[in-house]
Amino acid sequence: MGSTEGLTGPLADYECTAITTAPQIGQLNPPHRLLCGPGPGNAHPRVHAAMSLPEIGHLDPAFISMMEDIKRLLRYTWQTNNEFTIPVSGTGSAAMEACMANLVEPGDKVLIGVNGYFGLRLSDMASRYGGVVVQIKVPWGQVFSFEQIKAAIEEHKPTIVGLIHAETSTGAAQPLEGVGQLCHDHGALLVADCVTSISGVPCHLDKWGVDAAYAGTQKCLSCPPGVSPLTFSKRAMDKLMAREDKVKNWYLDMKMVASYLVGGKGATRSYHHTAPISMCYAIREALTIVAEEGLETRWARHREVAEAFWAGLAEIGLEPLVAKEHRLPSLTTVKVPEGIDPKVVTKVFLDKYQIEIGNGLGELAGKVWRIGLMGFNSRMDNVAVLLACFKDALAQQGYGA
Amino acid sequence: MGSTEGLTGPLADYECTAITTAPQIGQLNPPHRLLCGPGPGNAHPRVHAAMSLPEIGHLDPAFISMMEDIKRLLRYTWQTNNEFTIPVSGTGSAAMEACMANLVEPGDKVLIGVNGYFGLRLSDMASRYGGVVVQIKVPWGQVFSFEQIKAAIEEHKPTIVGLIHAETSTGAAQPLEGVGQLCHDHGALLVADCVTSISGVPCHLDKWGVDAAYAGTQKCLSCPPGVSPLTFSKRAMDKLMAREDKVKNWYLDMKMVASYLVGGKGATRSYHHTAPISMCYAIREALTIVAEEGLETRWARHREVAEAFWAGLAEIGLEPLVAKEHRLPSLTTVKVPEGIDPKVVTKVFLDKYQIEIGNGLGELAGKVWRIGLMGFNSRMDNVAVLLACFKDALAQQGYGA
């Protein structure tokens, strides 16, 4: 066994010359941007500092203790008591996929509200895991009424209902009050996309009866992307734990992750994968900042800053896409005026002012800009500079002349 | 459309009181550990500094340019010219799963060499994607001979052969010279686990004919976990691109990731997911440090430091598990002497000396310790302190008395 005749091992090989030569790459020197697109936003300076703290191993008792802090802080931020509330070891789309991979069993009917790009993505993910996807639709930028959702649930009898609480492609906030109860009355689980709402817009997961929610860190939490919040209700965990088949995704298998991050009775924890430790430090610090500010204060700040931005837009004749009662304070889609080339405007922002704003995505490509005022970036100085840059960039195309 | 009678939107809701109150969590203050287990190791200080640089967006021209730097540096580090050579947006297991999710089509026969824990994991992943897994086995700590691999390929005619170049559970290095050609002669692709070998042990992917390889950053690259190197040869990309079904994993769908990170002809790039930007800075810096040191120098340093450690172990009567000709310089498994409780020893290391070393995993639990001297941590001062701590911790159990 184990003979290696005719082979060379590391001992023989280590003197071997590297054939490809080392590339000459200069020092890393990224430009200093103000990030006011749909995300990422700029991280809070304290979050940067936290990432530089010395690493510990993912099985260190200090790691377990830090993970408990993160879970408690995340429960507060989402207003839930769900035991299973964790950071997933990937960016927001990983937490999104974790919902579908773990909760959708082959043949499950999944009803998805599509009023933007991320409803389409959720549908794609659900179908990859064998879900039978039924979509309901309203035009991008609008939201679903309670009656529309109710009628669709009664007609299609889904096992899972997926709604986008904050549509990052349109800037619309889907009301969720009462929707969880509606789903539960019909035997369905409610999944909500909170990527662009977490900590910037009220999220009352338990009050709303949301069974599974996912988010990103790089929006209102002001933490670089790399981990992503995920929570499952007891109802969702029960569905997962009752599965007899293996989840068709090893990295995002939340049965296995649960036994690592949450632990069973008797608190035995089994190694699953190496957690991204510096990113765990980052989200721990970002959530601490949320708790220090307090959710109500933070929600109100996002609201006041957005109101000021919207008032300023009106003054220069620019119009948000979404009706005010459904408009996200964290992300505003602004209609491109007739005759204006939107990409020339975003280029002026980036090249002249070092400010990133977003272009439209999917159906809204070429029709809107997307402006995020999220977390640390939700400030009056940013409102002032954004409005000034809009005036200049539009004037360069003769707007308002 | 879009009426919300009976619902409350973010406008009505933002004044709502948070029900759960903010937890009081103290300042983040992780202990300062020397990480000499199987990984993570301590990050290089320059990598920490890079993570604090200001974020840019994942569609920023400066991001695209930085990604090109990472790809060039990674090709050098792995000695490959593969165009598709990227950082995956998750830790090492995500890149591992990316190999199986993208290359294994339902019904494909996958031959996996199991000589440790990670061969088992690879088997689990392959089977979740519909692969028909055939395992060959040698005892943990040993490696496969060319003849064994050849005989198994001829018998089972696999589509994919998976071997663990560096078994993180055992510390054994699997020779791969000639194995790629062998696979290709039989119409199979060769997948190699390089998690604990990349940049610390010679990896000649093109010379060896490896078609897909994955690694971690938290071992010999001295970069915190959070992104993970992945490369596919043209042969592997051809298999992927010829697939008619959708890859059953959205986040790790490398067809979609390729059009984002690599671009098609004409260099159109389409958004896939938000990349973990600070971790991309980190790996870019870590790979720059590798290129500055030079691979040959770095391999030799790992070798010399390991030799010193092994000599010191012999002096105190401790014996490595793996035969010297197959022993990884980056990771040494040390046999637990009779009568010694291994977990008491690791606890002395952690509590008295703030040093993490690893316990045995799987079949080797309780039988070995795992000591990593990787990347930045591969230094003579660490050898000296590890040996001194071993002496003290063992003496506490009466060893050598």
From TrEMBL, chains A, B:
Q: Which domain of life is it from?
A: Eukaryota
Q: Which residues carry this modification: N6-(pyridoxal phosphate)lysine?
A: K219
| Database matches in PROSITE patterns | AA_TRANSFER_CLASS_5 (PS00595)
Q: Which Gene3D superfamilies does this one have?
A: Aspartate Aminotransferase, domain 1, Type I PLP-dependent aspartate aminotransferase-like (Major domain)
- Which GO molecular-function terms appear in the entry? alanine-glyoxylate transaminase activity; L-serine-pyruvate transaminase activity
- According to its record, what are the GO cellular component terms? peroxisome
A Pfam family of the record is Aminotran_5
Record-annotated Aminotransferase class V domain positions? 55-360
* CC cofactor: pyridoxal 5'-phosphate
- What EC identifiers does the entry list? 2.6.1.44
| Positions in coiled-coil regions | none
Query: Where is substrate annotated to bind?
Result: R370
Report any one BP term from Gene Ontology. Answer: glycine biosynthetic process, by transamination of glyoxylate
Q: Keyword set for this entry?
A: Aminotransferase, Pyridoxal phosphate, Pyruvate, Transferase
| Record carries keyword Transferase | yes
The similarity annotation says: Belongs to the class-V pyridoxal-phosphate-dependent aminotransferase family.
Output the PANTHER family linked to this UniProt entry: ALANINE--GLYOXYLATE AMINOTRANSFERASE (PTHR21152:SF40), AMINOTRANSFERASE CLASS V (PTHR21152)
Protein name (database record): alanine--glyoxylate transaminase
Organism of origin is Gracilariopsis chorda
Q: What is the lineage of its organism?
A: Eukaryota, Rhodophyta, Florideophyceae, Rhodymeniophycidae, Gracilariales
